[in-house]
């Protein structure tokens, strides 16, 4: 019966225990040999005679011996009088010493040797925060009456937005990898009212930046019967709070990564796009916030509202996808706005970086037909998508969170590739 | 403040309530007009004067009126003195009457009109069982110390198995859609010991059968430090029990779909492949169980063990992928077996259909190199994959469950397409 390393402290002193794991470190001293075993739960120390043969680091082993209290050992208990059985041939030397507290390697080395270097406890902990985030995301939405859905990643037409697509040879026909589940999650609001999906999305944009991947995980949410985008933002707030709670519960991983968790306020501060432009001193006709503007808006939210999160709403309609709902809120107390140019959209900034895009969508089929024609396109091209709207859809909206960006911000990674298990980009298709 | 249809019964009689949903049915009688509203929770009846204008079926509406007890109404409460506000123009007539108890349409109609026909309560309930299954799958594995992972769906080489692959144009280079996360989940056992992933897999096999899709959802599990494939089967048993429990909790959906839930025995009955061949009267040198043999083995398990589930183990090694571990169990009490020809594999049959494939994998890098060379291939081709093995891997194994087949069996669907939200196959890329 195997004991986990983390539970060794609960074994009766003097009892026989069996550990299974990797040789994390071996130290041959003059009078004793130490073997540190690593398993999914943590580390344990095994004491062997001086000169004992010990398998190479990273070899998998089964260790049987006596649980012995020793305040110097990790967890206060070590294994003595041990026999060590290697489960394979000796492992090759890793590209970095995994037992050192910090994994100090270049990004290319990290990525080329991902299968091995993710074993480093501090690196592995970064993904444990990703897994916890997924758990918190789903638990929150399940509690709010959402239904998980899965939508096709191969689509017959490439019409959703400006993002470039990857062509697929589909039994001799040209198809495309889905850039997002947008059209499908909207159609499924017609079925379930409230849906979410965690899945891969594919963007063939030849960006080589620290924040873009060609394949990433999108946490997609869509809900019906809303008043406007502020209802969507309220759900986003709850989702982020649930994700942070789930991450916080992973105490060991939070500590190993040095992650700094945001306090999620009861209400996320919101600033209108135009007010944000004025705040950062940008011209009033700028169509976008530049990265330095996003950082300045985040700094403002932190100073004024004590919040790591801030939503910018009301982006110019012309800069949003065709299905975006125009601005519909009265500017009570706010500067008058030209409603025809603004939209019921928002971007959520997390410590200076755009993390989430969301908003209200159109819901009348006549509005869709007009918006599609205004792009110079034929509504017939969108026939499958528009079917849902012809047959009755509620006012609705949603958002998408990029998992890698979220985790990257939590742990302060300089590049999203550092928190992606096997990243895909312009240059990388392996490992 | 909106009330859900299902909670109308808890509203104080005489209080004002607001419902939001779809016009499920309208009935103009001589003395009264009935409007049935459908939302994500269920149905509610609204009583209007004879001749009242009511939006077309499937139009979304907001209804405000008085909660009035009426034992004849669904849930014992209806809405009277109501005003009905349509949220869009009148909806187009659906391709089938969604208010009828059964959705009696042909498969092509169902698939062509998926965005609308999934709204039918009995059809929607099928997906609700899929969503519950996913919940039960993850909750069980989270409880067993597994870590959720995400692996790339675009890969640079197409080497895993015989299944045909879809080529992708990746920034001008040829890449492929992943046929399974097999190689990645194994590498991640080296990191996390126990991993799972729910994701799309892509099979370019030009089958046009009732049980194959070109894109489907694979529920993948892999775990380290096992004795052999029977440890994998024990985890599979717990996972299926967790999925059935989660499905059972969806009482309304179970009842609407008429799903028949299997009793998951504490231990799934296991029969060796050769004994299965003998049992069904097939020649001893058959390399596979034919579909009628699978049905016969399932019938035997039900008769002998009262189980809807049965595992067939020890398939011929030559018929399994190159990473399969050879047979290593003593045949205590069982017929002697030629160990070199049998494998530590299993297939799980669920009511006559293969639902899960699993087994133990090789774990020594030298075994991989030998197995790859035996296929006439160069181990260098598998360099990224073999990296994990060179640097130390435990004995491990895993399995994959096809979500659509699972749900299809639960509800007795004749074709997996009936339980897939937007299926993709040889002929279908839309909606």
Automatic annotation (TrEMBL), chains A, B:
Keywords: Aminoacyl-tRNA synthetase, ATP-binding, Cytoplasm, Ligase, Nucleotide-binding, Protein biosynthesis. Its EC number is 6.1.1.23. It holds the Pfam family tRNA-synt_2. The keyword Nucleotide-binding applies. It comes from the Bacteria. L-aspartate binds at residues 160, 203, 357, 361. Belongs to the class-II aminoacyl-tRNA synthetase family. Type 2 subfamily. HAMAP family: Asp_tRNA_synth_type2. This is Aspartate--tRNA(Asp/Asn) ligase. It comes from Nocardioides pinisoli. The gene is aspS.
């Amino acid at each position: 019966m195997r004991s986990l390393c983390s539970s060794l402290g609960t074994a009766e002193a003097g009892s026989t225990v069996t550990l299974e794991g990797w040789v994390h470190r071996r130290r041959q001293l003059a009078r004793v040999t130490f073997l540190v075993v690593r398993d999914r739960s943590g580390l344990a120390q095994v004491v062997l005679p001086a000169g004992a043969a010990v398998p190479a680091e990273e070899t998998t082993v089964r260790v049987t011996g006596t649980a012995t209290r020793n305040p110097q050992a990790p967890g206060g208990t070590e294994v003595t009088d041990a026999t060590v059985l290697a489960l394979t041939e000796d492992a090759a030397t890793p590209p970095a010493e995994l037992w050192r507290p910090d994994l100090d390697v270049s990004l290319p080395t990290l990525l080329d040797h991902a299968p091995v270097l993710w074993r480093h406890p501090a690196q592995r902990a970064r993904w444990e925060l990703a897994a916890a985030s997924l758990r918190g995301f789903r638990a929150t939405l399940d509690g709010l009456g959402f239904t998980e859905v899965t939508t096709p990643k191969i689509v017959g037409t490439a019409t959703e937005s400006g993002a470039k697509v990857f062509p697929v040879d589909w039994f001799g026909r040209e198809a495309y990898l889905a850039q997002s589940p947008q059209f499908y999650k909207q159609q499924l609001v017609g079925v379930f009212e409230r849906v979410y999906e965690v899945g891969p999305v594919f963007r063939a944009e030849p960006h080589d930046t620290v924040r873009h991947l060609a394949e990433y995980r999108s946490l997609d949410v869509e809900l019906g019967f809303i008043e406007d985008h502020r209802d969507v933002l309220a759900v986003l707030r709850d989702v982020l709070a649930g994700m942070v709670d789930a991450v916080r519960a992973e105490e060991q991983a939070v500590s190993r990564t040095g992650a700094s968790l945001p306090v999620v306020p009861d209400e996320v501060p919101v600033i209108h796009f135009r007010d944000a432009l004025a705040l950062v001193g940008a011209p009033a006709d700028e169509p976008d916030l530049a990265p330095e503007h996003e950082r300045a808006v985040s700094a403002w939210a932190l100073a004024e509202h004590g919040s790591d999160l801030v939503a910018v709403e009301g982006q110019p309609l012309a800069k949003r996808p065709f299905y975006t709902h125009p601005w519909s809120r009265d500017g009570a107390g706010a500067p008058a706005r030209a409603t025809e140019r603004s939209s019921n959209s928002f971007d959520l900034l997390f410590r200076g970086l755009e993390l989430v895009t969301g908003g209200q969508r159109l819901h009348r089929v006549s509005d869709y037909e007009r918006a599609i024609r205004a792009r110079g396109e034929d509504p017939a091209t969108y026939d499958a998508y528009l079917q849902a709207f012809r047959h009755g859809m509620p006012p609705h909206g949603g958002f998408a969170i990029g998992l890698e960006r979220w985790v990257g911000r939590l742990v302060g990674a300089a590049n999203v590739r550092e928190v992606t298990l096997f990243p895909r980009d312009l240059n990388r298709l392996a490992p």
